[in-house]
Amino acid sequence: MGSVSGEGRDRIRGRGRIDCDVLVVGGGIVGLSTAYALSRLAPGTRVVVLEKESGPAMHQTGRNSGVIHSGIYYRPGSLKARFAVSGAAEMVKFCAEHGIAHEVTGKLIVATGRDELPRLHALVQRGRENGIPVRELGPAQITEYEPEVQGLAAIHVGTTGIVDYGQVARQLAESSGAEIVYGGAVDLIARRASGIAVRTSAGVVVRARVLVNCAGLQCDRVARLAGDDPGMRIVPFRGEYYDLARPELVRGLVYPVPDPAFPFLGVHLTRGIGGGVHVGPNAVPALAREGYGWGVVRPRDLADELAWPGSWRMAARHWRYGAGEIHRSLSKAAFTEAVRRLLPGVSGADLVASGAGVRAQAVLRDGTLVDDFLIREGLRAVHVLNAPSPAATASLPIGREIARRALTTLRTA
Known about the structure:
Oligomer: single chain
Radius of gyration: 21 Å
Order of helices and strands: EHEEHEEHEHEEHEEEEHEEEEEHHHEEEH
Mean pLDDT: 93
Strand content: 25-35%
Low-confidence stretches: 2-11
Number of helices: 10
Largest sheet: 9 strands, mixed
Number of strands: 20
């Protein structure tokens, strides 16, 4: 990544000043896992976490479906595959050690059309390459697991589970030993000979030897504030959920066969820790980076998205897919029909509107949707530029990887 020296180095003044070795920007599960890893890899390292909200896990971490993913979907050898497979096992162990409610439920991935069968068989092979136990099922065996679900074939993945990632994030914050400062967004970053100085909108100034950018939906902006060209932009996609009014229709987790051309898994059914069943999410372009409904429009966010050439190239390439997602967002009947492919007995009356999340999707200049975790380094900085699902599942090994890079930078700074 290219970098420039911090302009405005004389303008960084604030009402409070904190000195540390490593500053982590972002109090979601990836930032907090990084702080947690730093405390274990290098005890005594002074770590500060800046989070602009009033508490941790307010965005992607706290607004997902709570699935501990197995890693079956991801290209063998990719960071997603490696970290999801190991991260799932680590997440279960972490939850057990800290008394966090979780369950290893397993899940079904169900083919409902003949055109999906080759992709289902490819997933079987991919799962085996990733070291994941997979069982192939016929129609009669599907109903043994899920009596109300119908399909031509399915696979059962036994290592999938469920958890409340907000609770995990809070435990990571408590266990990290880091100083966590809430309630101020980063608005100025300056590089100095001795390190990096950061100011927040609340007037807090933090001086650090190394900056770690885990800002999620704002990560590209933080990179640019630091003087680094991230080579991508965040394009936000909102995922909308319904709750199933008759949760007894679903025993566990049921997924469709995903389209490998997109980094989205499609509308699925998830029985959560509390016993309710989430239905969704879809994936529609959001009109704000934190736009959890069609009524939330932020001109700056929209302008950033429209000014990025990759947004137009992505739209030209995938407009049919996007149009279908928007149609299912605006039409409950269309959404219901998508669900009925998996769960024929469901009706529109069974779907009760629930919350939404926004996925921070990195898009390259040529319109490519980045399909792996993306971590880049600048001068005295480590930037996490693409960490959507399965980042929560993989957060413990991702945190260690980021921490190792930060510590290497710290030793050479």
